[in-house]
Write a structure and sequence with these properties.
- The chain is an alpha/beta fold and 380 residues long.
- It has 15 helices and 11 strands.
- Helix 1 crosses helix 8 and helix 8 crosses helix 9.
- It is elongated and about 85 Å long.
- It starts with 8 loop residues before the first strand and ends in an 8-residue tail after the last helix.
- Keywords: Transferase.
- It comes from Paracoccus angustae.
- One of its GO terms (molecular function) is transferase activity.
- This is CaiB/BaiF CoA transferase family protein.
Length: 380
């Protein structure tokens, strides 16, 4: 299918996760995304451990062009490339860009129609020149405080701020492409890692602003539901069960053979059921512990209950919904193992957008192809 950003050229000069994820989102919507790499290649190509998935996950569907932008010839080639671009994505420190003449203001003077997407640690303000990473802003905003138990702040188990920071940069780019269609002018979109994380904790901020009370960390939270917990089955498996409505409470009691709770006068309203968690949860836990995992999960699912295994990321490759047609995208990784990864988490008319080529380029694979097609510019 024809994708909405077909014909849009994006030049991406970024590394790690935030900038590359912005480029990947635009590529999956059909843009031609040209990733500028140094002669030795993007440093994240060779990360191991928890960093091994950075480059392959967030650089799918892009072209690789090697330029030594520290050299005059490389800078001249970048200028020629930017003259043909609609969008420039970067996530470098502002002073480094200014030294190279690649700061947003300089770029817009030379390329008035260019949309610059700057993926930064902070938006404009007192912190705008501070260094930042995902874990740091989780500590700064209260996200880590809310995730771990009291006294043990804990980052969430994903580069969520980097990924969503890139998403908001791409979101801003889409809006400015529409605006440019009206007025013909380029613009600068700046996405902040800190501000992204701030939005993720906004519900807790607003609770305090409205009620004057602070929520405790999530492991110690005051529950708003009768059952919303993790239990262990007879065969040693963990299962998450939730009953958040009167109907679900009744269904869970029936599945677990706890019909006596339905007629208990202490449990006739949801507030009653929530207030009684201290003694009902041990009863539920005992009933769960008498059931085998697979049987209980199937029974809860059939009853329309909130139920889930406690899964590991690696187990997603065996999940029937993940592996449904279109759930995973196969990518070739030059000189390394091919892999499967999720695409964009939405569909249009039943189909999720995927670029024509979701493979990973080798270092500089498209340098000759891209540069040879550029118009020549007079060199100073």
């Amino acid at each position: 299918m024809k994708l909405p950003l077909d014909g849009i050229r994006v030049v991406e000069m970024s590394h790690m996760v935030m900038g590359p994820s912005c480029g990947m989102f635009l590529a999956f919507l059909g843009a031609e995304v040209i990733k500028i790499e140094p002669p030795e290649g993007d440093k994240t190509r060779n990360l191991t451990g928890m960093g091994a998935g950075f480059f392959p996950t967030f650089n799918r569907g892009k072209k690789s062009v090697v330029l030594d932008i520290k050299a005059p010839e490389g800078r001249a080639d970048l200028e020629r490339l930017l003259a043909t671009a609609d969008v420039f994505v970067e996530n470098f420190r502002s002073e480094s860009l200014a030294r190279m003449g690649l700061d947003p203001d300089s770029l817009r003077r030379r390329f008035p129609r260019l949309i610059v997407a700057s993926c930064k640690g902070f938006l404009e303000g007192p912190y705008e020149n501070r260094a930042a990473m995902d874990e740091l802003v989780q500590m700064m905003t209260g996200m880590a405080y809310m995730t771990g138990p009291t006294g043990r702040p804990l980052r969430i188990g994903s580069s969520a701020n980097d990924i969503m920071g890139g998403l908001f940069a791409a979101y801003g780019v889409l809006g400015q492409i529409i605006a440019r269609g009206r007025d013909g002018h380029g613009s600068v979109v700046r996405s902040g890692l800190f501000e992204n994380c701030l939005l993720l904790v906004a519900q807790h901020m607003v609770q305090f602003d409205i009620e004057g009370t602070e929520s405790p960390p999530m492991p110690e939270r005051v529950f708003s539901w009768p059952v919303y917990d993790i239990f262990q089955t007879r065969d040693g498996r963990q299962i998450f069960l939730g009953a958040v409505t009167e109907t679900q409470w009744a269904a869970l009691c029936r599945v677990l053979g706890l019909e006596a709770l339905l007629s208990d006068p202490r449990l006739q309203t949801r507030p009653d059921q929530i207030a009684a968690r201290s003694w009902t949860l041990p009863v539920v836990a005992e009933a769960v512990a008498a059931r085998d995992y697979a049987n209980l999960l199937a029974a809860c699912d059939a009853a329309g209950l909130l139920c889930s295994p406690i899964a590991r990321p690696a187990e997603m490759y065996d999940d029937p919904h993940v592996t449904r047609p279109g759930g995973l995208i196969q990518s070739r990784y030059a000189d390394k193992k091919d892999f499967r990864a999720p695409g964009l988490p939405f569909s249009v008319d039943g189909t999720s957008p995927v670029p024509a080529d979701a493979d990973l380029p080798s270092v500089g694979q498209h340098t000759a192809e891209v540069l040879s097609a550029l118009p020549q510019m007079e060199r100073a």
